[in-house]
Amino acid sequence: MTIYPWLLLVHILAAMVWVGGSVVLNIQGSRARSSGDSAARVEFARSLAFVGPRVLAPAVIVIVIVGVWMVLAGAGWNFGQAWVLAGLALYVVALLIGIVYLGRIGIQLQRSMAEAAADTSDARRLLDQWILGSRVVLLVLLITAWDMVFKPGL
């Protein structure tokens, strides 16, 4: 037995954490946004600060390391194949949206909530922006999953 099936397992599990975590955060964010309870919005902002760096970030790092390792380990894959390049490009798009956009908004949201401003229009606007960005990342991740399964151009 080669190492490839183990790498694939770790790759899929890390992707499940990233996608599943993103779905749950999106649902929680939507519930916090529609809630009339400012404490729910404050708790959501706190959960972002906890889950992002401790759960999602490690999964995102594992995905790319193991994915590159799988291509290097053989199995007929190489970095010149369209589906591999598309997967890497989509990964970078999701990563950049997550770090640059969602990260920045998450920090602003947490600051806004910490200042007891959870009921302000600014806090609601930030939460709306975070939810929108999160949904874009989820869409990119779904397209990436399609690319990984169907391997277009192969």
Number of helices: 4
The residue fraction in helices comes out at over 70%
Contiguous low-pLDDT stretches (5 residues minimum) are none
Work out the number of β strands: 0
Termini separation (Å)? 25 Å
| SSE succession | HHHH
Average pLDDT number: 93
Count of domains: 1
Instruction: Please report which band the strand proportion falls in: under 5%, 5-15%, 15-25%, 25-35%, 35-45% or over 45%.
Output: under 5%
Query: Main sheet?
Result: none
| Rg for CA atoms | 18 Å
Structure overview:
The protein is mainly α and 154 residues long. The protein has four helices and no strands. The longest helix is centred in the middle third of the chain and has 35 residues, at 38-72.
Produce a short descriptive summary:
The chain is mostly helical and 154 residues long. The protein has helices at residues 4-34, 38-72, 82-114, 121-150. It has one domain.
